[in-house]
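ARCHIVE CARD
CATEGORY: sequence design from structure
SOURCE FIELD: tokenized fold
FIELD CONTENT:
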């Protein structure tokens, strides 16, 4: 989520300066200098000019926490470097977040299949790059094996609390012409645990859900709301996030969960999740509960389709072949809401509903005109 802010319990950026190092790998000195300029004063960094040199640095420097790599390089290209990182027997290396500098969709697709965590262009700005690094470091801090503690409840709302908080957020976002996003994160089935005794299986699932809950808590903003629903599901509510940003956040979260190293009896469990996204720009709603239901329904459809995927409005149409006939603009604002926005100087937020507002006050204007005409006639007769 591109607008994530620090919240209690998350990693403090300044405290990371002495322990985090970003490794920039690119055969272009200009590109390395450009990326380094964005990092200066924020994160320590190191530079290497090809994949082989980068691989050697990763193995020898334990402070490297994030890798930013080009694809087209001599000796060992970015694809080859990704393969080595993800195949490493060292958990520190295998789980390294890798940001690929991509110039085409084809390159990005192949890199994603090989385990790339994130993608940037060569013209990426400092704000965007630092924002992505911050999110990746928070996710990376949540990836070690699940602790033995009981399920974390601090900061996670019950279903009833989530509905109430989401309704408050929906009312606020409507008044201020903001988008409201609901993200459902559902744990996929674990076939490896089917032969395990039910009591043991329940405890393992409990710990995995604890991991997912803590991961979400570390990556959300203070103004967001996170709730736990039955059937191994979490739901996140966030305001002011675009559908595109929500999808990117969900993809990063999906990758983080898939890379988690959770083991049972010496073997890693294939942990994955399905994510459903619903936004207030999808559908005209009167209650936030409808958005929660829609996001939850999409995560279940994603799970039924094989899991390990993000399903938003566009992906829903592709997967089901059903046109989203419910897709509409946000409910037209009331006159009171419009006047409040205009008073705040936010005229642009009113423009999409302007025609509806003009139509709604036509009877009032007609009455005013009629009253004005009657007053004029009375004056004339007098």
């Amino acid at each position: 989520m591109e607008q994530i802010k620090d919240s209690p319990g998350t990693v403090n950026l300044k405290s990371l300066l002495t322990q985090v190092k970003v490794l920039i790998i690119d055969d272009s000195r200009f590109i390395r200098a450009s990326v380094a300029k964005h990092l200066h004063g924020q994160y320590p960094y190191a530079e290497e000019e090809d994949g082989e040199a980068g691989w050697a640095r990763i193995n020898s420097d334990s402070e490297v926490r994030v890798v930013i790599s080009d694809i087209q390089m001599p000796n060992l290209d970015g694809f080859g470097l990704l393969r080595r990182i993800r195949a490493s027997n060292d958990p520190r290396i295998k789980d390294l977040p890798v940001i690929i500098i991509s110039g085409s969709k084809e390159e990005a697709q192949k890199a994603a299949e090989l385990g790339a965590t994130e993608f940037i262009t060569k013209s990426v700005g400092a704000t965007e790059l630092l924002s992505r690094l911050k999110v990746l470091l928070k996710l990376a801090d949540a990836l070690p094996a699940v602790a033995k503690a009981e399920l974390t409840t601090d900061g996670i709302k019950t279903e009833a609390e989530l509905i109430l908080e989401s309704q408050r957020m929906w009312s606020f976002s409507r008044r201020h012409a903001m988008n409201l996003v609901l993200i459902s994160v559902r744990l996929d089935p674990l076939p490896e645990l089917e032969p395990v005794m039910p009591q043991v299986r329940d405890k393992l699932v409990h710990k995995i859900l604890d991991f997912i809950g803590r991961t979400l808590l570390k990556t959300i903003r203070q103004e967001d709301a996170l709730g736990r629903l039955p059937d191994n599901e979490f739901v996140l509510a966030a305001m002011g996030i675009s559908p595109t940003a929500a999808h990117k956040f969900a993809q990063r979260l999906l990758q983080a969960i898939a890379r988690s190293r959770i083991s049972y009896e010496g073997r890693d469990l294939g942990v994955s999740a399905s994510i459903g996204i619903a936004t207030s720009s999808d559908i005209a709603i009167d209650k936030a509960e409808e958005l929660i239901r829609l996001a939850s329904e999409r995560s279940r459809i994603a799970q039924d389709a094989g899991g390990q995927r993000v399903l938003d409005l566009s992906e829903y149409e592709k997967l089901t072949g059903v046109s989203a006939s419910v897709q509409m603009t946000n409910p037209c604002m009331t006159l009171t809401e419009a006047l409040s926005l205009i008073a705040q100087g936010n005229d642009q937020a009113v423009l999409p509903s302007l025609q509806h507002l003009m139509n709604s006050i036509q009877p009032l204007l007609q009455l005013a005109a009629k009253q004005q005409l009657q007053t004029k006639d009375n004056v004339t007769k007098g």
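CARD ANNOTATION: The first helix runs from residue 29 to 39. The radius of gyration is 25 Å.
SHELF: design records, drawer C
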